Amino acid sequence: HSTLVVPFTEPFTAASGTKIIRHFTFSDENTDIVRLLETTRTHFAETASLETHHPVSQLLFIVSDGRGLFIKGVEAVRKSVKESWDAGIFTVFLIIDKPNGSDSILDIRTPVFDESGKLLRIESYLDSFPFPYFVVLRDPAELPSTLADALRQWIEIVART
Fold this sequence. Notes:
alpha/beta; 4 helices
């Protein structure tokens, strides 16, 4: 389930960061990504306080192992990701991967079928990952630089529009 740990009406401080980190448990079996994105769009819409003319003006980080995203179906997830983008939300998906290389998300393969159900090919799971901006993070020490890079890219996109 999704929880708003630090309300948008509170300033973000070091204590807020600590509160967020303590909230990570990674104990969910799967993530209902469609519901997560719907909830996020609702929270962002309710708290939008600045008038902006930028098509992508809000930033969302999702931290997950990236598995089991399609429990509501591939098309439902893709639609929800597009609706979030259309709502002005730039989403960065941080995939926390196994550091030692065993059972890595990079090794997952998925079948691709045509409309009749005939197998066309087997491809990398990440080739059809529904989020266009994602990072596979194997070393937690890289998190600060990864977040900084994602923030820089978001600022560049907002500045171009």
